[in-house]
Amino acid sequence: MNDERQPLNPTKSEFLQALHDRVLIGDGAMGTQLQAIDLDLDADFHGLEGCNEILNITRPDILADIHRRYFEAGADAVETNTFGCNLPNFADYGIEDRIEEIAHAGAQMARSVADDMGPGREGMKRFVLGSLGPGTKLPTLGHAPFSDLRDAYTEAARGLVRGGADAILIETAQDLLQVKAAVHGVQQAFDDCGTTLPIMCHVTVETTGTMLLGSEIGAALTALERLGIDVIGMNCATGPDEMNEHLRYLSAHAPMPVSVMPNAGLPELGANGAVYPLTPDELAAASVHFVRDYGLSMVGGCCGTTPEHITAVRDAVIGSPDSQQDALESPAVTRPAHHHDFDNNVSSLYSTVPLTQDTGITMIGERTNSNGSKAFRTAMLEGDWNKCLDIAKAQTRDGAHMIDLCVDYVGRDGTQDMAELASRLATNSTLPIMLDSTEPDVIRVGLEHLGGRCAVNSVNFEDGDGPGSRYDRIMTLVKKHGAAVVALTIDEEGQARTAEKKVEIAERLIADITTRWGLRESDIIVDCLTFPISTGQVETRRDGIETINAIQEITSRHPDIHATLGLSNISFGLNPAARQVLNSVFLNECIEAGLDTAIAHSSKIIPMNRIDDDQRDGALDMVYDRRGTEGRGGTADEDYDPLQTFMELFEGVSAADAKDARAEALQALPLFKRLAQRIIDGEKNGLEADLDLARDEKDPLEIINQDLLAGMKVVGDLFGSGQMQLPFVLQSAETMKAAVSHLEQFMEATDDSASKGKIILATVKGDVHDIGKNLVDIILSNNGYDVVNLGIKQPISNILHAASEHQADVIGMSGLLVKSTVVMKDNLLEMNSAGAANYPVLLGGAALTRTYVENDLDELYQGDVHYARDAFEGLNLMDQIMSMKRGSQRELTEEQIAAATRAQKKKEERKARHERSRKIAAKRKAESTPAVIPDRSDVATDTPIATPPFWGTRIVKGLPVRDYLTCLDERALFMGQWGLRGTRGGDGPSYDELVETEGRPRLRAWINDLKAEGILNHSAVVYGYFPAVSEGNTVHILPVPDEAEEPDPAAQPVTSFEFPRQQRGRFLCIADFIRSRDEAQRTGHTDVFPLQLVTMGQPIADKANVLFKDNHYREYLELHGIGVQLTEALAEYWHSRVRAELAFADGTHAGDDDGTEDRAFFDLKYRGARYSFGYGSCPDLESRRALVDLLCPERIGVELSEELQLHPEQSTDAFVLYHPEAKYFNV
Hints:
Layout: H1 14-21, E1 24-25, H2 30-35, H3 55-58, H4 60-73, E2 77-79, H5 87-93, H6 99-117, E3 127-132, H7 146-163, E4 167-173, H8 176-193, E5 199-203, H9 217-225, E6 231-235, H10 240-253, E7 258-261, E8 268-270, E9 273-275, H11 280-294, E10 298-299, H12 307-317, E11 345-347, E12 352-354, E13 362-365, H13 374-381, H14 385-398, E14 402-405, H15 414-428, E15 433-436, H16 440-447, E16 455-459, H17 470-481, E17 484-488, E18 490-491, E19 494-495, H18 499-515, E20 524-527, H19 543-557, E21 562-564, H20 576-593, E22 597-600, H21 613-623, H22 642-649, H23 658-667, H24 671-681, H25 687-695, H26 700-720, H27 726-744, E23 758-763, H28 771-781, E24 786-789, H29 796-805, E25 810-814, H30 818-833, E26 841-844, H31 850-860, E27 865-867, H32 871-886, H33 894-927, E28 952-957, H34 961-965, H35 970-977, H36 991-1012, E29 1020-1031, E30 1034-1037, E31 1055-1058, H37 1077-1083, E32 1087-1095, H38 1099-1109, H39 1113-1141, E33 1169-1171, H40 1184-1191, E34 1199-1200, E35 1206-1207, E36 1211-1217
């Protein structure tokens, strides 16, 4: 019988019972108090500078006084002065042999103070928490062996237990693997001492919003909750504001009490060094919020907090001693009920992943398996660990949710291979790991290198379940490390073949794992196993159907159990194309039966609707063993054998990658055609070798002009005809850039005859958007033009200076904002005045229209001005302009002349239509009766007013990307940003096919890489709720009230927003959706005006800029698009949070009206709307200044430029209206 420790029942621990019955008050900082005392380095510290723990031996009187003052201040529990009693810390001082001694002294002294003071409030015992800190070594990064850290924690915990601690507090945790070592060490100490105490664990989340190594709070909870801890919480690194979102998560998901001990704010530099700015009352207010809104069980303080802070927290949360007349009186703050079961997740170091997906099944990547993947096995045997990591990362792109890691290989020391790979995957993969081995020691090594919650593959009864059996040894590890476990339907007689036997063994496994080992059914993944049905052996023909029936029976009996399969077994022996189809069909049948995970190569799974009917029917006949007349829906002959028929269907059919076929076709082309085709295909492999061969026959310049540019012309034609998508165009441009760069070394340095012309490109003043301009740069520069790219926010003086300095032929100006169209107009007038109208001008940008350029701007500019819808229209215009300018030097082809003639004719027709429309509109206006503009529209005034959860602002950091990734608009990203569009004419892939083959796989890979690099850790939100009233067309923002007070409807505004009113239709105005001041004064209730500002931070833009600079054009386009759409997704997600937080008097919320279907957010199926200044109904961008002043976004690294643009660029702000009639409109 295994006696592994379970989380304590509250009735077995006085401390846990107290946490259950009431909110406990913790103490404050020990170090802050010690710094205020004049201590001698030699006499008090014995020369160990900074080693506060030695004071347990040398100056227990000082420490006892600090403990006493915290108890007197209102603390129910104090922490021992043993934070540094760990191996890395004490080894630095050379006193690692004194860990247990010093820990014992610290606990004994604190216990003595608590006992001497007698019972605390309500007769409750005064508690002593044995503190254990992290030290300076991070085992995930290989700084120290797991076992060494664990054993030292055992020594420290033994001292704390013997010294009289009531609980062990593992705090300031920075590395999940370090926490695991600490928990294991503490549990071993309990076994050594013959007693058990509660274990508390506090993680530390940095200002980035994650733990030091990048762990999200969800990953921390998933990893730690199964280790046998009793309380989880947070301490240190930040103040309470930065902890808010993480505590919210713990409150909503933790199956145990939650506690918090924040710093007194973020440190600020004072005259005498760093100071913590949070006052006692401010810490108390935050503690009240945490207890009242999140149901926390213990609140206290960390760095910078003092007895005065703790008194304020005590008074605010449970009431001052004067108010506590007797034990029956209610506390000052009511704590809501807190009941949650354990989650159903596994986790990597970085993030948590549910074992059951909301849609589809959990795919477990099989390619990092030394027995199943030749590429992985070869890399592992050669010690090519980077190649192994590349194979692991590729599975993320393919859509895997977990990675199956198997290093077993005959004659190898699996523990060494596992150590090498698990340690690397710990930080390089964002996916959880399934450790796959038959050797307990290999599993142990893997678990001791991975801080996240793993799954262990696997256990079975092959050699029984007695002491020392493989099953017993692996289950001991599973339990100790809190892992999920794969249970195979194998017993002492071998692998089960029939459904009945599979179910019988599964029931035995489930019963033993849940009773003897204490796991939950949701921790178990049953693998019903299957032999190949493709060998022709009669005895294996029914293996598929027996497995399906077993899955169905097991999952119906045990709904919480997970079911999995190693999918590739079913088709062993068939050719690759046949295997893909059979695997896919079998998987689909198993899913229908209840399978929710599969160990498979996700990219090799084919959707049912893409499998030929005959192939699918043949596969189904094989799976269900329908031979003879049972086959083909009952229409087959008596001698019908589905296996033979299935194999015949795939004779000569290859599953080879289409890329291989293209490579063969490319190599067969003549050299110069091959070079052009390389540009068209974007194929760099072998490019330099072909260029070197070409130089034997042509000059480099001739190669560029005759062959490479010919390829780029085809690319332009294909894009223009809709047969090539933008990402592939950019791959071609990358290849062109690489080819030219290779040839340049063989060209004369002064030879500029290759240039077709020179253009100055710039984003106009006040505009920070440069993706369109940079795409023009890419296309022009790789089609023979010299491009001088000035960047963003360029005044016309800089543009003209550059044009003169570089002797430019053309000027190109870009801008995304509506305001930029006005700037372009002013720039053209300035060019007239400066005598610079000799420059032809290309204009482009999202806010521009062809009509505006060809009519309004063409009339005012004294030179030639052209509208370029995209980069390739810009290229065509440049070809026309430069041919006209250079005459016979660059003659246009007949095709180009015809195209230019058609374009000019269309332009003249558009101008004529525009002039007719203008005259008609002028006539109608002259004949119309002027509209009577009402003071107010017909928007309802009797809708309920919401109450926000707080007044003022809050900042939020560390949001897991998975939370807002659900709000990412894939169509806007894939089609709008990346340019993935279905091929015109139906000859190529459709949009949906491109999404499956290019869009989602590349997005998954990007998110994985960005998470691993920590770039997504910089996302942040600042939002707030402000009292507001309206008067006419104005919304007044009123002063934020003090805590527990209501806003004053008659107060003078702190700022006001003036909004325009429609001059037609319903005559709407934003102010109509806000309660009027008169009504607010009559009812005594103001309206609420939510504001929000979100950012993805600067690093995502920095990475994109590096990609552009390094000529990685496709990646640049993709990352820029991801940044834009993730910002929008975060804004939409936070808008939904705002709706969820706005409460009505009847207990409902504004978010209750949200649609439930997948695209509800994108179709605006929710109450109210989110508005940004500069658009539609609120076009005055100047109003953004007031919004920014109210939110103070510099706290999350966002600033407003003089041109009213947010920096970093991937930031967006808005105000929110929750009135049910509030939707988007234009004025």
